Amino acid sequence: MAPILQIKDLQIDVKMDEEVLNVVKNINLEIGKREIYGIVGESGSGKSLTSLAIMGLLASPPLQVSKGEIFFEEDKDLLKLSSRELRKIRGNKISMIFQEPMSALDPLFTIEDQLMESLKFHTKLSKKEMKRACVKIIEKVGIPRPEQIMKEYPHQLSGGMRQRIMIAIAMLCNPKLLIADEPTTALDVTIQAQILDLMKELRDDFETSILMITHDLGVIAETCQRVAVMYAGEIVEETDVVSLFHRPKHPYTKGLLKSMVGDRSDALYSIPGKVPSVEQMPKGCRFVTRCPEAMDICEKVSPDDLEVADNHRCKCWLYQKEMANHV
Amino acid sequence: MFAYILRRLLMLIPVLFGISVFIFLIMKMIPGDVVSTILGTEATDEARSQLEKQFGLNLPIYQQYLQWMGGVLTGDFGVSLRTGKPILGDIISRFGLTLELTLLSAFISWIIAIPLGIVAALKRNTSTDFGVRIISLLGVSVPNFALATLLLLVLSLAFSYYPPAGYVSLFEEPMKNLQMMVLPAFVLGTAMAGAVMRMTRSSILEVLRQDFIRTIRAKGASERIVIFNHALKNAMIPILTIIGMQIGTLLGGTVIIEQIFSLPGLGQMVLTAINQRDYPVVQGAVLFIATVFVLINLFVDVLYSYLDPRITYK
Amino acid sequence: MSETLLKVEALEKFFPVKAGIFKRTKGYVKAVNDVSFEVKAKETLSLVGESGCGKSTLGRSILRILEPTGGKVLFNDKNILDYSKQDLRKMRRDMQLVFQDPYSSLNPRMTVRELVSEPLYTHFSISKMEADQRVDEILEKVGLPLEHSKRYPHQFSGGQRQRISIARALVLKPKLVVADEPVSALDVSIQAQILKLLVDLQEEFDLTYLFISHDLNVVKHISDRVGVMYLGKIMELADTEALYEEPLHPYTKALLSAVPTSDPLVKKERIILKGDVPSPTDPPSGCPFHQRCPLAEEKCQNVLPEFVQVRPKHWVACHLVEQ
Amino acid sequence: MKKNWMALLMGIVMATLLLSACSNEGSSNEADADGGSGEAATEQVLKIGNDQEPAGLDPHKVPAHSSIRIYEKIYDSLLTFDEDMKVQPELAEKWEQPDETTYVFTLREGVKFHNGREMTAEDVKYSFERIMDEETASIAKSYFDKVESIEVVSPTEIKFTLSEPYAPFLSYVASTNAAIVAKEVVEENGDLNQAAVGTGPFKLDEWLPDNHVKLSKNEDYYKDGQPKLDGITYLTMKDESARLAAIRTGEVHVTTLSSQSIPLAEKSDGVEIKSYQSTEYSYVGFNVNKEPFNDVKVRQAISLAVDRKEVADVVWKGDAVLSGPIPESMGQWAIDVSQEELYQQNIEKAKELLAEAGYEDGFETVISTASTYTDMVDTAQLLQQQLEAIGIKAEIKQLEWGQYIDTWTNGDHDMLVGRNSSGSDPDRSIGFFFSTDGSANVWGFSDEKIDQLAEEGRTTIDPEKRVEIYNEAQKRVIEQTPNLFLVSPEKFFIVRDSVDNYSPTANEPENFNDVVIME
Amino acid sequence: MKEIIARLKKDKVGIVGVIGVGLVLVLGLFGPWLSPHDSTEMYKEHMLEGPSATYWFGTDEFGRDIFSRVVEGARVSLYVGLISVGIGASLGFVFGLIAGFFQNWIDNLIMRIMDILFAFPDILLALTIVAVLGPNLENTMIAIGIVFTPVFTRTVRAAVIAVKEMEFITSAKAIGVKTHKVIFRHVSPNVLAPFIVQSTLALSGAILTEAALSFLGLGIQPPNPSWGAMLNESRQYMEIAPWIAIFPALFIIVTIFCFNLLGDSLRDLLDPKLK
C-alpha cells in the first residue's frame, strides 16, 4: 500500500548570526494509511522540528529546510508547494495538535469561532452547515452538550477538554494525516488514557494516519505500529513497535528502555551525560559521548542508516563492523 | 462585574478625598494669594481684608475646606473668584474641548502607531524595523511646544495658513472645529505615537510567539488572518493600557498645546487659575480631572474584560 | 524504621473564595481536607495524585510555608503549628523542601556557591572557610563539579539545577525532606539520574522523604509506602507493593490501569474514567470520587467514607471495601 | 491585501491634510483681497488677537490692563483725557469749581445705558458711592478718600464736596475705574463681572474665558456716527507665535507683539506696525530696609553702573526711551532724564560709591522677576551682566506671577525687576509709589522731602505750580533712587492694511470708534 | 552582566544608543572644558549672529555663544534628568518593594497615595509643586521626581508581585531566611530589570518635562541654560535666527532618541522571554 507521507533525507538548519548549524539531519520515514507512527526522543532531539517541517510551519528565519523532500499522498512534495497551496492542505488534509492545550487555543475567541474558522478556510459550507459539522465533531470527540461548549472560551475548559477541542479542530476537515505533537504530555494519566483512547477510535472511524510525537515510550507502546527513535536531530533506529521494545538495536534505544523508571527492574538506570548542544555536535556519531559501547570509529565518522533486520533500520557502527574496519 | 465596578467606584472615594485634601493644602501652600493677584499694585490693606472676608479666606483652614467640600458634595463647585462664573459649568464646557483634543490626538497616534508597530514587528530587526522605530521615536523626542511653534510658523509662512481663531465646539460648527483641532491633535498625537508603536511592536512579537498562533497557522490560516484577526486582538490589551494611561495624562497635560493654539481647554483653565490663585477653580478642576482619570482607568479595565474573556472581575 | 518522625493529624488547608463588593468570603477551596498519616524515620512515603488533588498544598502546609487552617503537624512529637515564627525558623533546619521546577526555584542572580551556602549562613554563625568547605562537600555529594560553583543557575541544564536544589536542601543535613515533584520537569534519562541521587543520599544521610508526585512509575520505584490523593483527601495508603499489586480503592485501580505499559505486547485491562476531576470549590457530597466511580452506589453519593485500616498497614476510604 | 490596508490609511491621513489645506486656500484668498480696493467690507467686526485673558470686567474692581482695555469700551466716565493728558469732558458736558473743594458737573443729556435707560445724576452718585463703599473693595476707593459728600442738584447736575483741596481729583474722575454704572444691573447681578451695562460705544455680548470676548456696537452711543464698527471680537491668543501667525495670515485684524517680533511683522505683507509711547516704565525696586540697599550710595552706584541704553537696545530692540518716575508719554509732567547725572554710566564712580558704602568688593544679591514677562526676564539677565562690572554678583530668581505679586507686596526681595504704569496723574507716579504712606510704597522707602513735595502736589490746584513741584519731586526721587528707573518702552499694534482710521495714542491706545474695515 | 554586554554587542541599535548616551554624558561631564566661551557671557556686538568660526552654533539675542550654552545645557539637562529620575526611582523602588512584598494595608495605603499622585495631571502636579517650593533647578528636580514616583512604584510593585510568585522565594522562606533578607537578597535584585528599563525611559521623560516647565517659565533660572529653556527662549527667534532653536532642539532629540534606543534594547536584553 502506498504511504500517505514519505520523508526523504530531510535536513533542517538553523542560522545563528553568521554561522549555519545543523539541527535535524537524514530523516527518512514512511507513514502508511491508517497507521499510527511514533517518533520518540528527548527534548531537543528534533522531533518537533520534523513535524513542523511537514506542516511548513518552521519559524523561518532562523530555521530552514536545507535539503530533502516530503511527499504527501505520493506525488506532492510539500516543500515545493507555494505557501498558498500549502495553506490549502494545512488544517485540511494534514492537521496537527500540540502539547499545551492551555496555550494552543486563542484565548479571546469562543470554541465555536475557532472551530468555524477552520471550516471557513477549507469549505464552502453555509453557516448553518458549518455549525452542524462543528456540533457533530464535538460529539465525536466525546464532549457532552456540544451547543453549550461551543459558546465557551478556552479558559473555561479543563485541560482534557481543551485537548479534545484541539482534536476536534484537527479532525473537522477529515484529514488524511494527523500530526500529534506530545498530545498528552501536559495531561494527567487518567485523562491521557482517555485521549489516547479517543485518538485510536478516531483513526478507525476517519481512516486517518497519525504521526505521534512523544518522549514517552509508554505512549508509543500503547498506540503505535511503527516507531522512529530520534537522538540529537537524527533517526537512530526505526522499526515496528514490538521489535523496538523487545529487540532494540541502538545503544541509545536500549538505554532509553532501561531508564523507563519503575516498571521493569528495580535498579535505576540512567544514560550518563546529556544531549550535546547544537554548537557542540560531535563529528562522528552524535551519541558517542554517552554511548557505553563507543568505539574509536564512532568519534570520527558518522555511521550510516542501515537495515539491520527485516524492516528494522539502525544507525550504529555496532552493526556495520566490517565497514568500520574498512574505514 | 457589576460588583467589581461598584467596588472600584467605592475605592474612588478615599482617592478623591485624598486628592481634594492634597490640592486644597497645596493651594494654600503656594506663596501668593488671590487677593494680591486681583489687586496687584493697587492693593491697600483695607481692600485686602475686605476681599479676604468676601472670599471666606479669613476663616480657619479646616472650615474653608469643609465649606468647599460641602459644596462639592452637593454638586456646587462654587464660583470663580476672578470671573464670578459658576465653576462646574465652566469645567464641563471646557472639558468637552480637552476631551475632544485628547481623543483626536489619541486617534491620530493610533493610525500612525499601530500599523507601524505591526510592520516593525513583522519585519523585526530589518532595516524597515529600525526605520519605523526611528520615525516613531522622533515624535516623542521633540518637545511639544517646539513642534507646535514650528508648525504654526511654517504653515503661516509657506501656506499662509492659520487655523480659524475663536474656538467653536464640534456641535456648533463641525468643520471649523475640526480645522482648529487637527494641528494640535497632530502635535500631541506624534508625541504619543512612539510609545504606542513600541508597545504594539513588542506585544505583537509577544503574541506571535504564543502557541495558539501556531495552531491557527496549522489550520491553514493566511498571515493576514493570523495578524489581524488574532495577533492584533491579543496584542490589544497591553496597547490599551498604554493608551488608557496616555488619555489620562493628556486630560490634564494639554496645557501647553492649548495655550499655543489658543484653545480654551481645561488645562488653560487650571493654569490661569493657578496663576491667579483662583482656589476654587483649581481645586474643582483638579478634582474633576482626577475623577475622569480614575473613571477612564476603570473604563479601560472593564474594556479588558470585554476584549479578554479570561479577565473576569468579581 | 519504626520511630515516627512526622505525624499529620486531621490537617486542613482551606483557601477562602472572595466575591462581592466588599470581597467577603463566599466559600472555600478545600485544597487539603482532613488528612492524617504518619511518616517513620528514614522511610520514603509518597503521595500521588492528579493535578489539583492538593498534594503540593499538603506538602507545603506540613512545612508551614502555607499556614494550615486546621489540624496538627507533629514533628518529633511536637506540634509545629504552635511554634512561634522564631522557633519555626530554627526548625526549618530539620525540614527541607525540594521543588519541582528547577528553573524558577533558584534565584537567577546568585551563584551556585551563594545559593548553597545561604542556608548555612542563615542558621549558623559560621566562618566563610567552614561554609565553603561544607558547600564543597555537598556539591561533591550531589555530583556537581566544584569548578562550576561560581556559575549562575541559567548556565546549567535542568538536571544539574535540580542537583543544586538538592544540595541547597541537604547542606543543612535535615531530617525530613519534602520533595515536591522533583523529577517531573526533567527528561526521562535525566529523571533516573536524579532519582538515583535521591536514593543514594537518603542512605548516606539517613533522610526521611515525603515524596510528592503524579507519576506512578517514579513513585513505585522509590517509595516504601504510597498514599493516593483525590480532591484534597487521601483515598488509599499502603506499602508500595500492596498498593500496586492489590489496590483496593476504585480510584487507585483506575489510576494504575491508566499508566501506559512499557511493553506493546501486554494488553492491559483499561478502566477509562468518565469526565474530569470536579472543582475543589464545590466538591461533591459523599465520597468525592463517586461521580466518576464505575462502581458507585447510592451510599457513596451521600455518606463520606471513613479512612480506615482494612488490612495490616493498608488504609482505604471507600464504602465498597470490606474490612 | 496588506498594501490595500496601508493605502486606506494613507488615504485617511491625506484627506485630513487636504482638509486643512483647502481651508487654508480659503483664508489666504481672503487675506490677499485685504489690501485691494477701497470699499468697506460687509462684515464690520474687528478681530483682535488678545495676548491676555481679562481678569474680570467690573470697572470698579479690576485694575488689570487686560480688563481695562475691554471695559473701557463698555463704560464711560464723567471726564476723559486728551493727547496731552489734560482732562476733557465726556459724560459730563462741563464742570465748574466754585471753590477749592467743590466741583459741580453738568451731565450730557440723552445719554442712554445699554439697557435703554437714560443716565442721570443719580447713577453718577450711585457709581461713586459704590466705589467709596468699603464692601465693594474697589481699587479706586483711595482716589476719592477726600470726597466728603456727593449731592444730586438736578437730574443733570451733581456736586462733589471735598474735605480739602485735592489736585488729582479731576484726573481720577477721568479714570476708567471711575466709570458710571447702572444701579439696577449691579443689584441684579451682585457685581459687574458677568453683566456689563454702561454707556460706552460697545456693548458686551459674550465673554467665554480663554476663548473670546465679543462686543457689539452701541447704536445709541451719544457721539453721532460712532462707532463705525458693528462689533469687536477679542480672541484670546496667549502665545506670541500664534498671534504672529494669525496676523500674518489675516486671521485677526489687530494684535500686539513684543519688540522681538516686530522686525518679523514688518517684513510681512499686508500689515502695518503702529506704535505709541506707553505710559509704562521698567524699573528695579530695591528693598531699602535691607542691607546693602538701605544705603543710598549703593543704590546710586547701581544707577551709575547700569547702561540704560543697552536695556533699550537689547530688551526692547531700541524701541524704548529713558525714563524717570514719570515717563515721557506723560507730556507736561515728565522731565528730561537723559541729562541726569545718575543716568550717565560711570563704572569708576560707581565703584567709588560702593567703596564709600563699604562694599569695595561688591556683594552678592538676588534679582527677582516675573517669568510671565520675557522683557522682565531679559532685563534681569542684562542687569546681572552689567552689575558684574562693579563686583555685584546677582542671581536671578524667576517667579511665577502670583508669587511675584506676593513678593512685591511683602517686600520679600533684594532687587525686583518690574514694570509700572504711571497712571494719569503725577500724584500716582510720586505720592502713590514713593511717599511714606503711599499705598504702593512696598519698598519701605521714606524721605521727608518727597513726602512734603507729594503733599504739595496733591493740594496745589494751579497746574503750572504743580509742574514745578513734580519736577523737583522727580529729581529728588531719582537722586534717592528707591527704584532704579530704566526705560519706557514703545508699544506696538500690528494692524492689517484693511483696518482704516486707527491711530493709537498713549492716553487711548485702543480707540476703535472711527475704525472701518475695508475690503 | 557579561552576558548582557556580550548580547548588547550584537544589538546594533543598542550600540547606537549606548554611544549616543555616552557622548552626551561626556558632553555633560567635560562640557566646561570643551566650550570655547563662557555660557553666560554676552558678546553684545555679536547679537543674533549665525554660526561662524568663533561662534560655532551662532549667538543668541544677548550675543551669548550657543555652542557653549548647548554644552552647558547638556550638563543641566542631564543633571535634571539623573537627579529627578534618581528621586522618583528610589522613592518608587522602596515604595514598590514594600507594597508588592507585603500586599496588606501598607500596600493599600501606598498604592492609594500613588493613585492620588497618579491621577494628578503630570504637568499640573509639577507646576504646583514648583509653585509651592519656589522655582529653581533643585525644586524642579524634586517636582519631576515626585511626578515620576507613582510610575516607578507601580512598575516595581508589579515586578515584585511577579517575583514573589517564583519558587525561589518560597525556597528562601523554606530555608528560614529572614524576611528582610528575602526582600534584599532575593526580591530586589530580580526586579531590577524592569526598573532599569523604566529608568532609562524616564530619563528622557524628565528632560522633556523640564523643557515643558521651562515653557511655563519654571525650571532653570536664567541666564543658565538648559536645553528646554534655550528652546523655549528661542521660539521668538525661530524665524530670524533659526540656529538658536535648531541646536538645542537637535541635542534634545538626539539625547532622548539615544536614551529610548538604549531603553528599548535593555528591555529586549533583560526580558527573559526573549532569551
UniProtKB/TrEMBL annotation, chain A:
Belongs to the ABC transporter superfamily. Residues 5-257 form the ABC transporter domain. It is found in: Cell membrane. NCBIfam families: oligo_HPY. GO terms for molecular function: ATP binding; ATP hydrolysis activity. It comes from Thalassobacillus cyri. Transmembrane segments: none annotated. It holds the Pfam family oligo_HPY. The keyword Cell inner membrane does not apply. This is Peptide/nickel transport system ATP-binding protein. The keyword Chaperone does not apply. PANTHER family: DIPEPTIDE TRANSPORT ATP-BINDING PROTEIN DPPD (PTHR43297:SF2), OLIGOPEPTIDE TRANSPORT ATP-BINDING PROTEIN APPD (PTHR43297). One of its GO terms (biological process) is peptide transport. One of its GO terms (cellular component) is plasma membrane. Gene3D superfamilies: P-loop containing nucleotide triphosphate hydrolases. Signal peptide: none annotated. It is a peripheral membrane protein. Keywords: ATP-binding, Cell membrane, Membrane, Nucleotide-binding, Transport.
UniProtKB/TrEMBL annotation, chain B:
It comes from Thalassobacillus cyri. One of its GO terms (biological process) is transmembrane transport. GO terms for cellular component: plasma membrane. This is Peptide/nickel transport system permease protein. InterPro entries: BPD_transp_1_N, MetI-like, MetI-like_sf. The chain crosses the membrane at residues 9-30, 103-122, 134-161, 181-200, 239-261, 281-307. It comes from the Bacteria. It is found in: Cell membrane. Residues 95-304 form the ABC transmembrane type-1 domain. It is a multi-pass membrane protein. PROSITE patterns: ABC_TM1. The lineage of its organism: Bacteria, Bacillati, Bacillota, Bacilli, Bacillales. Keywords: Cell membrane, Membrane, Transmembrane, Transmembrane helix, Transport.
UniProtKB/TrEMBL annotation, chain C:
GO terms for biological process: peptide transport; transmembrane transport. CDD domains: ABC_NikE_OppD_transporters (cd03257). Residues 6-256 form the ABC transporter domain. Transmembrane segments: none annotated. Signal peptide: none annotated. Keywords: ATP-binding, Nucleotide-binding, Transport. Belongs to the ABC transporter superfamily. This is Oligopeptide transport system ATP-binding protein.
Automatic annotation (TrEMBL), chain E:
One of its GO terms (cellular component) is plasma membrane. It holds the Pfam family OppC_N. It is a multi-pass membrane protein. Keywords: Cell membrane, Membrane, Transmembrane, Transmembrane helix, Transport. Its main location: membrane. The keyword Cell membrane applies. Gene3D superfamilies: MetI-like (1.10.3720.10). The chain crosses the membrane at residues 12-34, 78-102, 114-134, 140-163, 191-220, 240-263. InterPro entries: BP-dependent_transpt_permease (IPR050366), MetI-like (IPR000515), MetI-like_sf (IPR035906), OppC_N (IPR025966). The keyword Transcription does not apply. Residues 74-263 form the ABC transmembrane type-1 domain. GO terms for biological process: transmembrane transport. It is found in: Cell membrane. Signal peptide: none annotated. This is Peptide/nickel transport system permease protein. It comes from Thalassobacillus cyri. The lineage of its organism: Bacteria, Bacillati, Bacillota, Bacilli, Bacillales.
